[in-house]
Design goal:
The protein has 327 residues and is α/β, with parallel strands linked by helices. Helices cover 33% and strands 17% of the residues. It has nine helices and eight strands. The protein has helices at 10-16, 20-31, 81-93, 100-107, 111-122, 203-213, 259-276, 284-296, 302-315; strands spanning 47-49, 56-59, 65-67, 136-145, 168-181, 187-197, 219-223, 239-243. It has a five-stranded mixed sheet. Strands 1-2-3 form a three-stranded antiparallel sheet, with no helix packed on it. The protein is globular.
Length: 327
């Protein structure tokens, strides 16, 4: 069984995935860990190698041909799988992301191909919205875009300051904080983010998001913005902690703070402005998912995060091969 802890440097990744045979062997083990090849179309285990190929199979039940790549983000690729392996490691290990231009240089492909790879890999980073947030949940909103400083006078739009959505896209974020105690009685803080693009940040929109994502009776901490006053009137029984930023308060008297969600915004802005420079609004949800994935896996090693991406890819084998890029 492959030990992913060895993959904590790009050198180890390149060394292991130096040829296509190793790559296919790795993917085969990831997909069929019990060693039994199953047809992705009918589930049959009556499989034969196709035309003597070790990588191609034919199902004797439904008579369809397939490979270990069927139904994955690698399906129908014309690139060597070794480049996908190295590319996925680079994408998952860079703290602030990696641009398509840089990825193209690193794995020797065109910028268009690198851009395509990035979006396919981002499909694996989609947020899991199946569980409710609970305990102490910090909430805040931010507005992306709208920088008028460097625009020509003819292109500048008036009235875009503050929370205007004329040229800005509102994003709402939540960070759950939990605590664990280890065997040496040391306390550890764990954070988990959920972030989404929204049409606006009105009371109706915010409360709908909170009631659909935060468990009853949880403590919700926000700043003093008026839209959050409705939390006190919610039938969900939330406890509302308020941090008054206009009074330069960063932790209130009860010990509540919004520093963790503010920290997430800092990392998100570094990724967008520092690495990608410009993000199309149509693709913004995918960049948000990427940032959340990095934030929620920050306690993992590079090797563990690399393994997680493959676990997701093969857990939903039939869901990613035909991902349609928006726009």
């Amino acid at each position: 069984m492959l030990n992913f802890t060895n993959f904590n440097s790009i050198v180890q990744v390149i060394k292991h995935f130096s040829n296509e045979a190793n790559c296919y062997s790795f993917l085969k083990h990831q997909r069929w860990s019990d060693g039994v090849v199953r047809c992705p179309y009918c589930g049959s285990v009556h499989i034969a190698h196709r035309n003597g190929s070790k990588q191609e199979y034919r199902c004797e039940h439904c008579n369809k041909s397939f490979s270990v790549l069927a139904g994955t983000i690698f399906e129908n690729t014309k690139l060597p799988i070794s480049k996908w392996m190295i590319g996925m490691y680079l994408i998952s290990s860079h703290k602030n992301g990696i641009s398509s231009v840089q990825l193209a240089k690193d794995i020797e492909v065109t910028q268009t191909t690198a851009w395509y790879m990035l979006h396919r890999v981002r499909a694996l980073m989609k947020q899991d919205e199946s569980r409710m947030l609970s305990g102490n949940v910090e909430c805040d909103e931010m507005y992306l875009g709208g920088r008028e400083t460097n625009k020509h006078n003819k292109q500048k739009v008036e009235g875009t300051q503050g929370r205007s959505t004329k040229t800005k896209t509102p994003i709402f974020g939540m960070v759950e904080t939990s605590y664990t105690v280890d065997a040496d009685n040391r306390s550890h803080i764990h954070t988990y983010a959920r972030v989404m693009r929204v049409e606006n940040c009105t009371t109706k929109t915010i409360m709908s998001i909170l009631e659909n994502n935060v468990e009853e009776g949880s403590c919700i901490t926000t700043d003093e913005l008026g839209v959050y006053a409705a939390i006190d009137r919610s039938e969900k029984g939330y406890y509302h902690g308020v941090v008054c930023h206009k009074d330069r308060e960063f932790t209130n008297a009860e010990g509540f703070t919004t520093n963790r969600i503010e920290g997430f915004w800092g990392g998100f802005k570094r990724m967008v402005f520092g690495t990608y420079h410009m993000v199309n609004r149509s693709y913004l949800p995918r960049y948000i998912d990427e940032s959340v994935f990095r934030y929620n896996t920050k306690e993992m090693s590079e090797g563990e995060r690399f393994k997680l991406m493959f676990d997701i890819a093969f857990r939903h084998c039939c869901g990613y091969s035909h991902v349609r890029l928006i726009g």
